[in-house]
Amino acid sequence: MLSKLFTLVLLLTNACASNDLNTKAQEIESKFLKAKLTRLSDIDSSIKVNLVNSNTDNNFFKMNFYGNLNECYLQKKIIYKLKKAQAFLKKSNPNLSLLLMDCARPRSVSWQMYNKLKGTPFEKYVANPATGSMHNYGSAVDITLINANGSHLDMGMNPFYKNRFELLYAVTKNKLFPSLSKEQSKNRLLLKSVMEKAGFKSIKLEWWHFNGFLKKTIRKKYKIIE
Fold it and tell me: CATH for 2-221, among 3.30.1380.10, 3.40.630.30, 3.10.580.10, 3.90.550.10?
């Protein structure tokens, strides 16, 4: 009897958690649709998506910001640039693919992230929402490369691994980035080359982050997604 009761409670708990994730995903997605963003899979379904901020275990905040959402939304022009980057990548490396880890991000989510890191050595890795991250305009992506088996290529320090805090602390404390192997450097350069060839702008601090245009162009062209 107790076993059946425990099973029933567990099922009800899981159902409530699932409903909460669905509700959160719907709230985030509605903001993207209201901002007239485009869904990546509607333009190019060959590009893979794994939104780390929809998974508590795979982001260093240990928080789920997007519910069970796993769709990449961006400004349409940014998506067509991603389509070009994927084509450039496939031409030289048919077995590889782009993997999107974060795309558009409401400023409300950025505030949660920023407040979580404020006053820590990691604060600089989240743009101050007061001025707006390029993610808040639907014009930036966090991205990496995967092979045909879905495994990540070795990029060296990976910000999406669970131990990002430890890795970034070592970098911040020593004011040096970890040395890279030839393979890691090669993989980073490959990602950078296909993204820049497609018109994206890289930034020095984060190898995984690319803006669709110059920041001043993005701020002039688009509105922040709240």
Answer: 3.30.1380.10
Question: What number of residues does the chain have?
Answer: 226
Hunting for tokens 């879905």 — which residue is that?
Answer: 150
Do residues 97 and 146 lie in contact, with contact meaning Cβ atoms separated by under 8 Å?
Answer: yes
Q: Whole-model pTM above 0.90? A: no
- Total Cβ atoms within 10 A of residue 205: 10
pLDDT tens-digit series, residues 87-142: 999 999 999 999 999 999 999 999 998 998 888 777 777 889 999 999 999 999 99
User: For 29-40, how does the pLDDT look when each residue is reduced to its tens digit (9 = 90+)?
Assistant: 999 999 999 999
Residue 192 CB-half CA count within 13 A: 12
